[in-house]
Amino acid sequence: MNYLNMNNEKLIPVVSELNILLAEYHMYYQKLRNFHWNIIGKNFFDLHEKFEDLYGDARTKIDEIAERILTLQYHPISKYSEYLQIAKIQESDSLISDKEMVEILLGDHGTLLSQMRKVVKNADEATDEGTIDLIGAYIRELEKSSWMLNAWSKSTADTLKTMEVNEPA
User: Fold this and answer.
1) CATH assignment of 8-153, among 1.20.140.10, 1.20.1260.10, 3.90.1150.10, 1.10.3470.10
2) Distances (CA, A) of 8 to 2, 23, 113
3) What is the spatial distance between Cα 148 and Cα 131, in angstroms, rounded to a whole number?
4) How far apart are CA 91 and CA 23, in angstroms?
5) What are phi and psi of 13, to 5 degrees?
6) Overall pTM > 0.85
7) CA pair distance 37, 34, nearest whole angstrom
8) Across 132-140, average pLDDT
9) Where are the domains of the chain?
10) Average pLDDT over the chain, rounded to whole?
11) Scanning 10, 24, 54, 60, which has its CA 20 to 30 A from the CA of 142?
12) Residue with the larger pLDDT of the pair 51 and 157
């Protein structure tokens, strides 16, 4: 029964991209756990807590993405062997500096954001507003987390871009 009143054929690319996003989030989640457990140095307290916040958020998103796939009447991919095959996010070494950890996570954020945009594009073509709404919120949240991690990695002497008041947009 098609209780969603959507074209099942148009949902196939949406579900495919959601499964890839699910795999990316699983890899990202485990990397955050790795970094949480292995952070050392003067930034231990800040990053240990931040990584815990991020992996808690990732765990929630993993569940929501899988449930969205189920809502669309498909089974989510659920084997790590399959996640390893389709995810671009790769495992990371445990014995790296705090700065390297943050740089790696910012790169992973770029991968996640790119995948989220693919999901939104396909969901738009399928008129799948539920998926667009879910992933749109994820994009906003991840962009904010990226900004914060990027700000952490900067020197206090660094500055952001500025615009003059009369400068054309």
Assistant:
1) 1.20.1260.10
2) 8, 22, 25
3) 26
4) 12
5) -65, -30
6) yes
7) 5
8) 98
9) 8-153
10) 95
11) 10
12) 51
Q: Which residues of 148-167 are buried (b: 16+ CB within 10 A; e: fewer)?
A: ebeeeeeeeeeeeeeeeeee
C-alpha to C-alpha distance for 29 and 57, rounded to whole angstroms: 9
One-letter amino acid at 135 equals I
- What pLDDT sits at residue 155? 85
Amino acid at 1: M
Q: What are phi and psi of 43, to 5 degrees?
A: -95, 15
Question: In whole angstroms, what is the distance from residue 37 CA to residue 70 CA?
Answer: 32
Cβ-proximal residues to 55 (8 Å cutoff; 6+ apart), any chain: 29, 32, 33, 36
For 26-48, what is each residue's pLDDT tens digit? 999 999 999 999 999 999 999 99
pLDDT at 134: 98
pLDDT higher than threshold 70 for residue 117: yes
- Quote the distance between the C-alpha of residue 169 and its chain's center: 30
Q: Which of 14, 27, 156 is nearest to 92 (CA)?
A: 27
Do residues 119 and 16 make contact, with C-beta atoms less than 8 angstroms apart? no
First and final C-alpha spacing in the chain: 49
Q: Would the pLDDT of 169 be above 80?
A: no
Q: What is the CA radius of gyration of the chain?
A: 18
